[in-house]
Amino acid sequence: MNPVKVGLLGLGTVGGGTVNVLKRNAKEIARRAGRGIVIVQAAARDLNKPRICDTTGIKLGTDPNEVVNNPEVEIVIELIGGDTLAKEMVLKAIEQGKHVVTANKALIAKHGNEIFAKAQAKGVIVAFEAAVAGGIPIIKAIREGLAGNQIQWLAGIINGTGNFILTEMRDKGRDFDDVLQEAQALGYAEADPTFDVEGIDAAHKLTILASIAFGIPLQFNKTYTEGITRITREDVTYAEALGYRIKHLGVARRTAKGIELRVHPTLIPARRLIANVDGVKNAVLVMGDAVGPTLYYGAGAGAEPTASAVVADLVDVVRAMTADPENRVPHLAFQADALANDPILSMDEVETAYYLRMQALDKPGVMARVASILGEQQISIEAIIQKEPLEDSQFANIIMLTHRVQEKQMNQALAKIESLDTIDGRVTRIRLETLDSSK
Ligand code: HSE
């Protein structure tokens, strides 16, 4: 059988990795797919840029339209990034009846509902395994492997750059900016690195994971998003002393009132496997009612790990090309007409435990006043550490862990605590998740 001809948009880190993997593993890939898979044409913004791949045999140009319009091209790989030109090209490819493989999490999180509706109408596949957690086949695992379960919650370290920064800060005491620059040089960071450190990239990925886990439309604008920029070495040290690690997590949980969708730094028990996922690695913990907890681990970014997911999608698409569209795995795991409209909960309604750190005047009654404000809001304290003031300061650091409580109640308590003249500045609050089977 003739090989399937593929067009590639974007020849950067992941594009280069994809060319290399497809060439190196061509025989194995053909044995798996039943046909060879060949990139015949590619578009890149700047043809003079140094490449990590050999483009011999690939027709190169700068106009992505030429690739999409090439009648020979049956599958378009979109690795441009962003959601303007990429969206235009993906919709154009779908319009022409071509299948699409993309690594573009922003595109899927923000425009996936529209894109999948168009793809379904045209009977084509839009595959996006590489959009979440790089090389980890997490989309396939949730969408197919766990199809017998009601997913109760999932929690993931889904931004490699952020995890790399937190790990280097903790282990080597390195500076935030210095580590970020290294992540950029290694090709892990987003074109705009604020996407990594402010949690936007993780929010894109969590939006996608929640949709396929719970069968709900993609709702990026309802995902609560907080990054790692305010995490201090001090908090990392106190967390460790209490038996916890600070990780930047995406959490999606189904509750009786609705769905929690949130991305933020989180204390997790140091004994959990996921607490030991370091560097650029990602991991996603998924709790199914039948299977219990399952953990998926691997490289969350980088040229070949992400290419691994792109190529797996290509193989899937080639295998499914001849199948009746009705019998394909639905884009969002559930049949398009069976998506649920569960509400996404506001952060006020979310319930978690908390780590609190405050600077308190070192005199009698201060701790009692703080504890009574927490008590008035039904917030129960699980642990307290008080560090004596440094020689030149009147303020002692008080660190507390609380039991689970609604964020609304915690906000009210913190406003009162911060208004005390015995408390200096803002209270640091980091959410805490035990990630055990019951919660
Ligand atoms: N910037 C992303 C990360 C790349 O660091 O995880 C993979 O999506």
Briefly characterize the structure.
This protein has 439 residues and is an alpha/beta fold. It has 3 domains: 168 residues, NAD(P)-binding Rossmann-like Domain (Rossmann fold, 3-Layer(aba) Sandwich); 162 residues, Dihydrodipicolinate Reductase, domain 2; 82 residues, 2-Layer Sandwich (Alpha-Beta Plaits), CATH 3.30.70.260.
Description:
The protein is built from 14 helices and 17 strands. It is of the alpha/beta class. It has 3 domains: 4-135 and 303-338, Rossmann fold, CATH 3.40.50.720; 138-299, Dihydrodipicolinate Reductase, domain 2 (2-Layer Sandwich), CATH 3.30.360; 351-432, Alpha-Beta Plaits, CATH 3.30.70.260. α4 (85-95) packs parallel to α5 and α7 crosses α8 (176-185). The model has no long low-confidence stretch (mean pLDDT 95). The structure holds L-homoserine. Residues 134, 159-161, 188-190, 196, 201, 300-301 line the site of L-homoserine (HSE).
What's the topology here?
Layout: E1 4-9, H1 13-24, H2 26-33, E2 37-43, E3 59-61, H3 64-69, E4 75-78, H4 85-95, E5 99-102, H5 105-122, E6 126-127, H6 138-145, E7 151-157, H7 160-172, H8 176-185, H9 194-197, H10 200-214, E8 224-225, H11 233-241, E9 244-254, E10 259-269, E11 281-288, E12 292-299, H12 303-320, E13 351-361, H13 366-376, E14 381-387, E15 395-402, E16 405-406, H14 407-419, E17 423-432
Parallel strand pairs: 1-2, 1-4, 2-3, 4-5, 5-6, 8-10, 10-17
Antiparallel strand pairs: 7-9, 7-11, 9-10, 11-12, 13-15, 13-16, 13-17, 14-15
Bound molecules: L-homoserine (HSE).
